[in-house]
What does this fold into?
Amino acid sequence: MDQEKTAGTATPLPNLFGQTLEELRETCAAAQLPRYRGDQLFHWLYRAGVDAFDECANLPVALREELARRFAIVHPEVLREQHSIDGTRKFLLRLADGREIETVLIPSESEDEGQPRRLTICVSTQVGCPLDCKFCATASMKLKRNLTPGEILGQYLAVQQRSDQRITNLVFMGMGEPMLNYENVMRSVEILTHEKSGGIAASHITVSTAGLVDGIRRLADEDRKIKLAVSLHATTDDLRRRLMPINKKFPLADILAAAEYYYQKTRRRVTWEYILFDGLNDQEIDARRLARLSRRVPSKVNIIPFHPIASAYPEGLPLELRSPPREHIEEFARQLRALRVTVMLRSSSGRDIDAACGQLAVKHAATRAGRESA
It folds into this structure.
């Protein structure tokens, strides 16, 4: 059953897409079907990526018809796709309730036989975000709701079906704060990393947080095999509070303590995400403080060029933020390397297609609102 039919009914049928293997088995048992039918459905939903029960070839026709009467397979709908000159592709997707989210597909700069060695998908975990980070367009949307496991997985499926190359890596760095939707994010990870789904290895999945300490510690306690990235962006509490109000609740000392706890429990290094802002956090003293901080635990630093987000804000600090010149960014990276820090200098992927988090969704919502008011 397709999305439009399901979304238009007064009482939508239960959506099977997003259920784990064990949940599918239990759903089948509750419907008085053999539990092994859950295993078959898991294959068709995630490895084959079907969007209708009549595509499940090894199920009896009568069973397919019964499933279609009782359940639905609902995927996000791709509304728009943008292509960058650097190979980055950005997708705007509509959910069953009409809300919109973004997903970005990013090829690595290094190639092997003419193909990117890595193809990374950046997925969203919430519609909007409540954290109000001043450098993020998504913050201007505020939080609408969490995404379901099916809506998270649906981004991967929709983009993989439109890619000639296999997606090798996934990062939870799109719209929203993953740690505020922890349960659904981890259920999507469980499905994506299952050997029967044909998805992505846990070691190739990264969850990024603005520094929610409770989530970092929970991730450590559960010994998830995925990687952790922390959006840092400042080396003092004063500046970080200006850029990221969440720092009032979780200051740097608490974040560093949580990172140490995470490493002690998992023995996996942490990635510090650091967007450079001209004149704010890009001086030599910032490099020295960042080096001291990063040496607290085995880690690496991702230096990220800033994408302007003026289109999402009418006034305030977001309009004052600027990216340093490229040579300044490279010099900052050299300073860190001289201080024995492992540094990855990210390219400004998709700058020509509003690839920064939230830009496309905000712009599309504003255009739609303008049309409706007209």
